[in-house]
Write the structure tokens for this entry.
Amino acid sequence: MPPKLLDDHVRFRFDAGGADVVSVVLDCDPAIPGPREFARVDDVWELALPRPGLARLEYRFIVTRPVADGIAAETILDPDNPVTVETAFGSRSVMQMPGYAIPSWLEAPAVPGSFTPMAVEGETADDVPVTVWSPEGFEGQALPLMFVNDGPEYDQLASITQFSAAKIASGELPPHRVALAHPVLRDAWYSGSPSYLRTIAGQGFSRIAERAPIRGRVVVVGASLGGLTALLVGLLDEDEIGGVFSQSGSFFHAELDDQESGFKYFGRISRKVQEVLDTTQAARPLRVGLTCGALEENAGNNRQMAAALERAGHDVTYAEVADLHNYTAWRDALDPHLVEVLRDVWAEAQG
């Protein structure tokens, strides 16, 4: 049967159906406290996980079985739970806690739109592929622009162009375009790479404007390493940028994120982050929105970054959500948090 919430814990079950099983382990985010090993009662394996402070829980089972030359482990979805989600790392089963609901804009009327591929040539060895979504009926007209790092994943897994289409249809946001940047060399580009930052903030917006004229100031969006990059792009001395929206930003800091110290670009990231933390006065204040899962590893460095940006004079909002480091969490936080940033930055353009 699917997982069930019982008082203060979630009960998981796996029915082996008479098959020979050596062990069953819950595979979920390490930030979730509690045991992982199932206990066996006849053919049924069971685990009681203390109820986490989450609205939804993504998971899989690691099932170990005997084979001819020993044992073999297989990672599977929960066969008794029909609720699944596609993630950047494959499919996951999902337990939705009481009260969880998908965002209403996913099922709301939406304006039609079209996609235009292009490439941004700059200081990076490879061009940056960008696909621009535009609402129909505004061809050739100047519109506000939202630039999204990890754009294809944000669209496929967090429905960001559907979000824009629905918010335009409802009148909550003005007609605007969404530039979806493709992460060709993600770790290298999204780790404080000066050449990538200058390519986007320098020629990037100009190149986009040649095909899709821009009105007002750009808002840069990203999550995880893309969230770090969104902030670093925004902090460059470029007047075209008015806002940043970062979700679970990887603001790695030497004192808070030792678990990430083995990452190839940790040193570069932590130096860039420290430079931002040490800034006492913003030369060009931005509207900055940050969201992060309250239980995830990045929560500490996100709290630190939000406080530092506010001290420096930026207009900052920070929200912690009852989810973890995944695209569904980022999707669910777009409204109201991204809506508020876009409204504030584009108020003049809308008027």
